[in-house]
Every structure is written in structure tokens, then in C-alpha cells.
């Protein structure tokens, strides 16, 4: 399959749903490697989820959160999110849906698999499929067969979900009710008790601080750190010494002619599609044919093809691009479409072409005959490739020679004589190392070796590293003197928050008797008012994100205006009451109706899938085909 991909260099079309790609990269690696011992954490309908699968899924899920949260990621946040539990739940759900696909006879053809692969965003370059990106991507994964299996499995899951949600609809009554709820508004009065103000008056003793350190040593535990001496052998520096001969260039050309320097015959085309459902009635088919014929007449009358495609094409993957399908070779489109496109001259427009998708009008922009590129045309590319390969070989050869010297006991500086030896500051696992960057193999190798023990070669895209660690400091909980300020800040914060909550409860109790304004005045607290908010508000004006208060606000009334609890806002205590509640203005309903229908339909479909998954889990539990081995879930 992937060998077949090398023949093609571009493709566009119907977008693969986001959920397919999310499943691929979050749950990458389901299944055990043949021949290895598998530490099973779950069995789902006969499928095995191994500890290795769970470790990989957790790591990938964490990577996604780190990208979304940028610098706000922390171990405490990771624990609160329970990433391992979430990853396991996703793995179980994927296995259940995969079993359903098999039970329902849902399959994915090789052609559909190919279509999905060439549309992966990671493999696009300027909107076109790039085979070099595919090769680079595959090098970072396990093997090509598993890559194909993951894409196929993702497509199967998409189809099961589509089948489950096929009958989901949204009524006009539901739309009106949702709009009414979304646009009802409320304003709130609130008093805020700031924990930081209370914490400033708290006196702490060394005994208090030591108790905190003794009770929570892991909060202050430092990770194992190490420093490293290293040398970088950069292939591009060695490549400068390489001068390929004419014979080497010719040999490289012959060896790679078919794979790299031959292009298939291709056309660059646009199209306008008038879609016809497979089960369309004769009347519907005739109506679609008439619409397509009218569009063809407008094209023949010299109306701009791209503009017409944007306005009228039913192909969601190309309409926004003026119907542009990019370059494609033979074998990519349905036979009728392909035959028509390859017979047209550049600039020509087809008659109506019928395919299983409906009626097409095709315009060819360019026709490339394909064939082998002459050596002279690709000579510079070949020279660069040879220099890169040979540069890597020379860098690896010199690095290996120096490594053998180190293994025989030669001092580091002497073994790598003539090359600069750099020393890192202390670093821990996963750190960004100055002069190296965030290279997992570098940090893991340094932390795995003893002081002054030379490493094996560590290869990256830009350098080959040879290192020897030193100044290793094991993970430990430091004495109070080293973390005093941090411990004091934590204790002061915790006591300040506890004091704020206590005062908040006292204020709430008094407000139930006297009202919020009077109770706050008695306590010397200011009562402020929010601006109007609705149920969609992510944050409450003048307060911030407080989901519980936002939800409670629309249960409060004039007769019972006081919020039922003390709300925690980053440790501050909030006591709130309703000021005003305004019914929704329905005048904007008609304008918002279509967009709201799309949003509500997506939500109902997601709820349907969730309910379906709950049903599958319940059934599997009842039948004994879902087993979670809780004692094996913790990372080994």
C-alpha cells in the first residue's frame, strides 16, 4: 500500500473528520508487538490493552494537553486530570467500537485507506500530499503495517459513529428552547473574601513549616539531575568535505530513478459537483441533472468557473477552493471522472459526467505527461542527497572511533581531541538542554549512566552526540532551610484559603437572615455587581470562570435570590445573590437558527455516541468481556 503512495505527489478532496485524526494520534499504538511478553491491563471483547499501549496513549494525551496549555503545564495539573484514567477509557472505547464494526460487517477498502492517508494534514505541503513527509513521519513510528492498521481502524470507528448518529435530528421547538435558555440574562451581586489578605496576618513557626514538609515530602522532592560533557558531530559539517563524482551521481540517479525521479501522468483539474444520493428518486435525480445542466450552460457562457464552484458545488472538500482538486494521477478518481479529465486539453470543460457521487462539470487547468526527469534536471538534488548521506556516514564513523577510545579508558578531552567539548548545566528528565535542545534520548541516556561512563552514539536529524555524565544528584526531599520560602508560601496559602472559606460560610449564614447587602456591611465587605451574563458565558464579568455560580444564577429568583453555597474562586470565597433576571430577546432567533441547529445537532450526536458507548460498556461488563486489571494500571 505505502509503496503505491510513492507514485503520487498530490491530492485534495473530502476532509477526514477531526475525530479520525484525534483517535489516530491520541490512541496511537494499540496492540502488542508479536513475540514480546505483554503485560495486560485490560481485555475488551477479546482484544488486549497492554501496559505499553496505556503508557503510550497516556504520553500522547499529555503531549496534546502540554501543547494546548503551553507553559501552564505542571505535575499537579497532570494528576488532577487523571490522564492515565482518561487514556485507558479511550482505549477501551476504541476497542468496543472496533468490535462493533466487525459485528456489523463494516469494512474499509484499500482505496479508502489510501485516500485517508494522502489527506492527513501532517503529510501536506502547500495543500498537496508530500511523499517525503510520509517517509519522515513513518521513521518516527513503529512500522508501516501498524501505521496502515491505525488509519484503517480510525476510519472504521468513524463509520460506526456515523451509523449510530444517522437518525439524530433537531426540532424547531428544541431550537427555540435552546435559544431562549442561551439568551436569558442575569446580573449578580457578590461579596469577595480574599484569602491573600487573610494570609498576610498569619504567623507561622518553624514547627508549622516542618510539619508541612514532613506531611507532603513529594511536593518538594527534587528530580534526579545530572550534568553531561558532550561532543556534537554534525553531518552538515562533514558534508562540506564530500564532493560526489560524476560516476556516483549517475549511479545514484539509476538506483533512484523509478522511485524519486519519475512522475506519473497527471492532470490539474477543477470540478463542480451536483450531488445525487445513492437512493435518490427518479424525480430527485432529474432535478439534479437539470441543475447541473444549467450550471454547465453558465460555464459555457464564459462565467468564471472557480466562482461558480464556490457558489454551487456540493463537494465540501473543494468548493471553497473554487473546485480545485489539485494534481492527481490515474487511479485516484472514479473511472468515469478520470477518463473525462485525462481526455480534456488544458482550459477545456467537459460535458456532464455522471459518477456514483452525482453529476460533475470538469475543467482541466494543466496536463502533465509524466515520465522520468533528465539527470541534468535533478543533478543538484542528487549532489545534495549524496553529500547529506555521506556526511552522516563520516560523522558516525568519527563519533564511533572516539567512542571506542572512551571505552578503553581514554580521558574525554583526549579521546575527542580537536573537537570542542561542551558541558551542560544540571538537567532532569525531559528537560530542554542548552546546546542540545529537548532530545529525549540525550537526557534519558545521561540519567541512565554512571558518572563518567561514556554513552553509545545518540543520533538526531542534525547531530550525533557522544556524552559522559557527571555531578549526578539523586532525587531527594531537601531540608527545610533549602525550601523554606516555598513551604512558607504553601502553608500561608492553605491557611488563608481555609480562613476565607470559614468567613464565607459565616457570611452566607448571616445573609440567609439579613440579606447579602446587610450581612456584608456588618462584616465590612464591599458588595459589587456583575455585568449581565448568560448561560454561555465562559467567565462571569468582574469575577472570572465560576461554572457552579453561573449554573446556580439561573435557578435563583426574586423570592430566593441568595446563592446556595460559598463559591471558591482560586481560594477566594464568593457569596452571591441575584440582582436581576431578564428573559431572552427572541428577535435574533431567525438569524441564528441555522448556526444553532448545527451546534445543537453536533451536541446531540456526541451525546448519542456517549450513550451508545455506555451501552456497549454495560453489555461487555454484563457478558464478562470487559476486564480491567486495576493492580496493573500504575506505571511500572
Q: Can you describe what's shown?
A:
With 636 residues, the protein is α+β, with helices and mostly antiparallel strands. Helix content is 50%, strand content 16%. The strands form 6 sheets. A 4-stranded antiparallel beta sheet has the order 16-5-18-17, with helices on both faces. Strand 17 and strand 18 form a beta hairpin. Helix 11 packs across helix 21 and helix 21 packs across helix 22. The radius of gyration is 32 Å and the shape is flat. The two termini are 37 Å apart. The N terminus is likely disordered.
Compute the number of strand runs.
19
Our estimate of the beta-strand percent is: 15-25%
Rg to the nearest angstrom?
A: 32 Å
Total DSSP helices: 24
Low-confidence stretches: 1-37
Separation of the first and last Cα atoms: 37 Å
Question: Could you outline the blueprint of secondary structure elements for this entry?
Answer:
Layout: H1 2-5, H2 18-26, E1 40-44, E2 47-50, H3 51-69, H4 75-81, H5 83-104, H6 110-118, E3 124-125, E4 128-129, H7 131-139, H8 144-164, H9 172-183, E5 185-193, H10 195-199, H11 206-215, H12 217-220, E6 225-233, H13 235-239, H14 246-260, E7 262-263, E8 266-275, H15 282-300, H16 305-312, E9 324-329, H17 335-343, E10 353-355, E11 358-368, E12 371-372, H18 375-407, H19 412-415, E13 422-423, H20 440-448, E14 458-459, E15 464-473, H21 480-514, H22 516-522, E16 527-529, H23 547-553, E17 567-569, E18 572-582, H24 589-623, E19 626-628
Antiparallel strand pairs: 1-2, 1-19, 3-4, 5-16, 5-18, 6-13, 6-15, 7-12, 8-9, 8-11, 10-11, 14-15, 17-18
Helix pairs in contact: 2-8, 3-5, 5-8, 9-24, 11-21, 14-18, 21-22
Amino acid at each position: 500500500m505505502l509503496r503505491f503512495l510513492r507514485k503520487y505527489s498530490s491530492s485534495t478532496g473530502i476532509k477526514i473528520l477531526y475525530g479520525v485524526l484525534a483517535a489516530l494520534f491520541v490512541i496511537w499504538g494499540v496492540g502488542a508487538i508479536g513475540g514480546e511478553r505483554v503485560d495486560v491491563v485490560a481485555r475488551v471483547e477479546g482484544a488486549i490493552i497492554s501496559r505499553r499501549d496505556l503508557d503510550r496513549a497516556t504520553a500522547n494525551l499529555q503531549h496534546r494537553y502540554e501543547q494546548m496549555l503551553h507553559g501552564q503545564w505542571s505535575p499537579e495539573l497532570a494528576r488532577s486530570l487523571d490522564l492515565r484514567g482518561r487514556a485507558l477509557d479511550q482505549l477501551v472505547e476504541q476497542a468496543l467500537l472496533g468490535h462493533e464494526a466487525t459485528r456489523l460487517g463494516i469494512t474499509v477498502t484499500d482505496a479508502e485507506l489510501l485516500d485517508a492517508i494522502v489527506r492527513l494534514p501532517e503529510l501536506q505541503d502547500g495543500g498537496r500530499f508530500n511523499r517525503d513527509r510520509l517517509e519522515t513521519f513513518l521513521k518516527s513510528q513503529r512500522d508501516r503495517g501498524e501505521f496502515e492498521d491505525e488509519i484503517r481502524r480510525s476510519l472504521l470507528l468513524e463509520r460506526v459513529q456515523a451509523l449510530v448518529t444517522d437518525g439524530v435530528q433537531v426540532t424547531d421547538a428544541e431550537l427555540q428552547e435552546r435559544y431562549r435558555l442561551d439568551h436569558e440574562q442575569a446580573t449578580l451581586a457578590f461579596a469577595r473574601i480574599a484569602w491573600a489578605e487573610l494570609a498576610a496576618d498569619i504567623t507561622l513557626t518553624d514547627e508549622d513549616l516542618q510539619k508541612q514538609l514532613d506531611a507532603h515530602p513529594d511536593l518538594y522532592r527534587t528530580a534526579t539531575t545530572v550534568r553531561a560533557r558532550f561532543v556534537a558531530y554534525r553531518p552538515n559539517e562533514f558534508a562540506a568535505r564530500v564532493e560526489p563524482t560524476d560516476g556516483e551521481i549517475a549511479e545514484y540517479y539509476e538506483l533512484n530513478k523509478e522511485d524519486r525521479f519519475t512522475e506519473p501522468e497527471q492532470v490539474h483539474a477543477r470540478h463542480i459537483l451536483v450531488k445525487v444520493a445513492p437512493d435518490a428518486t427518479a424525480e430527485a435525480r432529474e432535478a439534479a441533472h437539470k441543475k447541473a445542466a444549467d450550471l454547465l450552460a453558465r460555464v459555457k457562457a464564459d462565467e468564471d468557473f472557480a466562482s461558480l464552484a464556490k457558489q454551487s458545488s456540493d463537494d465540501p472538500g473543494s468548493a471553497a477552493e473554487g473546485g480545485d482538486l489539485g494534481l492527481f494521477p490515474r487511479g485516484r478518481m472514479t473511472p468515469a471522472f478520470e477518463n473525462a479529465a485525462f481526455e480534456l486539453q488544458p482550459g477545456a470543460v467537459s460535458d456532464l459526467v455522471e459518477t456514483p457521487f452525482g453529476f460533475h462539470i470538469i475543467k482541466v487547468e494543466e496536463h502533465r505527461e509524466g515520465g522520468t526527469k533528465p539527470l541534468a534536471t535533478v543533478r543538484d538534488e542528487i549532489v545534495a542527497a549524496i553529500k547529506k548521506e555521506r556526511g552522516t556516514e563520516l560523522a558516525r564513523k568519527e563519533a564511533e572511533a572516539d567512542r571506542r577510545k572512551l571505552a578503553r579508558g581514554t580521558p574525554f578531552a583526549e579521546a575527542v581531541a580537536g573537537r570542542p567539548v561542551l558541558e551542560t548545566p544540571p538537567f532532569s528528565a525531559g528537560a530542554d538542554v542548552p546546546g542540545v535542545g529537548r532530545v529525549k534520548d540525550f537526557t534519558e541516556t545521561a540519567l541512565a549512566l554512571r558518572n563518567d561512563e561514556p554513552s553509545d552514539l545518540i543520533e538526531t536529524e542534525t547531530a550525533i552526540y557522544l556524552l559522559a555524565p557527571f555531578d549526578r544528584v539523586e532525587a531527594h526531599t531537601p531540608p527545610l532551610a533549602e525550601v523554606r520560602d516555598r513551604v512558607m508560601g504553601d502553608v500561608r496559602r492553605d491557611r488563608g484559603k481555609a480562613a476565607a472559606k470559614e468567613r464565607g460560610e459565616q457570611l452566607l449564614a448571616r445573609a440567609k437572615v439579613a440579606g447579602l447587602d446587610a450581612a456584608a456591611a456588618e462584616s465590612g465587605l464591599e458588595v459589587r455587581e456583575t455585568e449581565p451574563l448568560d448561560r454561555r458565558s465562559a467567565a462571569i464579568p468582574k469575577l472570572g470562570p465560576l461554572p457552579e455560580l453561573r449554573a446556580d444564577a439561573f435557578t435563583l429568583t426574586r423570592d430566593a435570590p441568595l446563592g446556595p453555597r460559598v463559591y471558591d474562586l482560586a481560594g477566594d470565597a464568593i457569596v452571591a445573590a441575584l440582582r436581576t433576571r431578564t428573559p431572552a430577546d427572541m428577535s435574533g432567533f431567525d438569524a441564528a437558527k441555522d448556526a444553532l441547529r448545527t451546534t445543537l445537532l453536533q451536541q446531540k450526536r456526541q451525546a448519542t455516541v456517549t450513550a451508545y458507548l455506555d451501552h456497549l460498556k454495560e453489555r461487555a461488563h454484563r457478558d464478562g468481556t470487559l476486564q480491567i486489571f486495576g493492580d496493573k494500571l500504575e506505571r511500572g
